[in-house]
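Supplementary Text 2. Reproducibility record for the structural model of the 245-residue chain.

All settings were left at their defaults, and a single model was retained for analysis rather than an ensemble. We include the record here because the model underlies the residue-level annotations in Supplementary Table 4.
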Amino acid sequence: MSQRVHQQSAYLLHQRPFRDSSQILDVLSVDHGKLSLVARGSRSAKSRLAGLLRPFQPLKVSWSLRSDLGTLTGAEIDGRLQTLVGDTLMAGYYVNELLLNLLHRHDPQPEVFAAYEQTLAAMARGHDVAACLRHFELELLRLLGYALNLQTDAVSDAAIDPQRHYEFRPAQGAVPVHRETGGGVFRGAELLAIGEERFDDDEVLREAGRLLRQVIHHHLDGRELKTRKVLKDLHRGRLGAPPNE
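Retained model, structure tokens:
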């Protein structure tokens, strides 16, 4: 693997110290997907990169790559910083962590990049945080090939009955059950409403959070996201439980 890339639209997802004054950056790029880059000397007080390398800041980045870990060769601002504060800031970090854990490196995902940008912009404009997250989670799952079938049951392929109850099993889908309660049990009407993304309804929004926590936990293979504990308190009450609990 050897490449040189110039002026690629990207966002910084995560950064961590490397050696004395450098960092390793986890970056989401529009044409090259997720990748890791060494930013040499970027933690130095004299580095011109210090004020640029910020989460939620649109960037143009350049790099050289000869192995799985590349080297940052340039970066510049490419638009206004998406200002996220309070709830939206933690939600932004949650989205970043979700991408870090679900995306494969060097897998071009321009539609994921577009969905990410749209989600940041919507939250920065003050749209409902939980609704933004639910929209993004459903879209991300679809783009990664894990789209939820919320229209037909997994046993007979019959249309979901709004009056029946179903257990949603992430590896299988909606399975009709006779019980009305349980961690994975939903009314058919709720599943249909989630599929239609009717998140202006608080009850649908809460049930979508419950469903998507279960599905995302399955696809994370038991890995726990660090933002979960903070979001537990952040999304209680009207927003329901945290997006990935």
